From TrEMBL:
Keywords: FAD, Flavoprotein, Oxidoreductase. GO terms for molecular function: flavin adenine dinucleotide binding; N,N-dimethylaniline monooxygenase activity; NADP binding. This is Flavin-containing monooxygenase. Belongs to the FMO family.
Amino acid sequence: MATENRIRSVAIIGAGAAGAAAAAAFKAEDYFEQIRVFERRGTAGGTWIYDPDPHVPSIRPGGLPADLDKPLEIPTTLPATTSPNQQERFVQTPIYDTLTTNVPAIAMSFSDSPFPYGPFVPHHVPRQYIENYFSKQRTDDFLSLNTTVEDVSLLSSPRSKGPQRWKLTLRKYDPSKLADVWWEEKFDAVILANGHYSIPWIPEVTGLAAYMEKFPGRVIHSKYYRSSRHFANKKAVIIGNSASGHDITTGLVSTAQLPVYQSRRSLGRWDGDEPLSGVQWKPIIKEFKLDGTIVFDDGTVFKVNGRPLWDYESNKLIKSYWHTFLQDFPRLAIVGIPRVLTFRSFEYQAVALARLFSGRNALSLPSLREQERWEKERDEKSKREHLKFHDIRWETGETMNWLDGFFQIAGLGRLTGEGRIPPAMTKDLIWAIENIKKYPEPGNQNNGKKAEADEWVVVNRSTKDLLHFI
Ligand SMILES: Cc1cc2nc3c(=O)[nH]c(=O)nc-3n(C[C@H](O)[C@H](O)[C@H](O)COP(=O)(O)OP(=O)(O)OC[C@H]3O[C@@H](n4cnc5c(N)ncnc54)[C@H](O)[C@@H]3O)c2cc1C
Ligand SMILES: NC(=O)c1ccc[n+]([C@@H]2O[C@H](COP(=O)([O-])OP(=O)(O)OC[C@H]3O[C@@H](n4cnc5c(N)ncnc54)[C@H](OP(=O)(O)O)[C@@H]3O)[C@@H](O)[C@H]2O)c1
């Protein structure tokens, strides 16, 4: 190579296993004047760095790396200092707690440096190994850590006859300035050793995007799986049966609800004639539905155990009855949702539920149809009267009617004394509520002395319900 065409400087992007091997090989030539390794993480190790608590970004099904990980805007003049980047860059790795290597050490390690033991090692071993390899090869001083290569541009035109040169745009967070520092460096040659497992791929499946939006966190990519403990007692479908799918399925068998479903598109390396005990094979998924169900290609349906309880848009319980019961979950109930008298109403709800769940209730809940009708009518009324679905008014008599509903359901205790009787709404209590405005303001209680009539506050009648402040 003519001297003027000689490659003198080389930039290596990435300090994973590939970057470690490249740095060692280039150094061994004893030929290059400058070798630099740019690594955006704080240490070498690449994929094998373990991030125990990853940030889980939202990932659009069908989104390709170029859409999901858009280039940052480069300052017009460099060097420059900008506020620290906030954009998701997918720098964290997919390593989970139980991951071990799946290639025997003799075949996975570099030829001049065996793994400390084998044949399969936990994930921290290759991480340490890669870091040590930089020191062992004395290539550690080539490393520029916490430095992201934001752009690689050809300096000359691809058609020009002269040797090509490259300009790298680099960004590094400077903790002393609490800012990102940007600069450029030029090299004769560049080695891309940046890996390819940083940006997760989620395929497009009918309904998946809307499903992920409606049920945030319910669908996660294996990149963000960390431990089977996070899925204890949950119903789970694992999509895929390659290395990650196999490992995660095997892990979940010991913690999740059985069977663990595994959706397979083709035969995997680990698949025998039968699934592992505790696993049920399923074909690919053809649709994700907004009621939470998942439809497989063979028409079978995966029903999720559960659904959101609260509709934040209309600010109400979903499928409720009497502000307490859930139409589709007869063994689940909520005490304390409506805006109404507090403790005393809780007591009514609690007594009615206790009697109902012990089978000692005087009155059954109405039929599902009746419950649905109640919800629909209340919904319409709330909209018509611009009221909140779960606000129960005192002055219209609604509170008494509502409490009476529990009174009817609960009935009396047993002759032998078990069970509580719904408390009476005594005249004194009703008087206290109806004359609430005559009490001294809370916090102004005259040192605990009984308020005298001349201390009573006379307030104009407002259009708001007497108990609206609860
Ligand atoms: C979960 C999992 C398990 C695996 N298990 C095995 C196994 O058991 N055996 C096996 O042989 N292989 C396994 N692999 C494959 C693994 O990817 C390789 O072993 C190897 O680690 C890849 O090394 P790499 O250097 O090419 O990429 P990486 O390890 O990904 O390293 C690339 C480096 O480049 C850095 N980088 C990227 N972009 C930039 C940028 N713009 N600027 C600066 N730095 C940048 C990254 O931060 C990263 O450190 C596994 C992969 C995964 C995902
Ligand atoms: N050391 C370890 O133990 C370990 C653990 C995890 C990962 N890894 C490594 O990490 C890398 C990535 O592995 P990976 O398993 O995460 O990914 P992968 O090998 O790309 O496998 C993706 C899997 O998803 C399946 N799939 C894709 N779309 C599907 C759909 N719509 N329905 C059902 N299945 C679908 C694929 O099926 P098809 O086969 O039909 O395409 C395949 O089984 C590999 O290098 C692997 O060796 C290693």
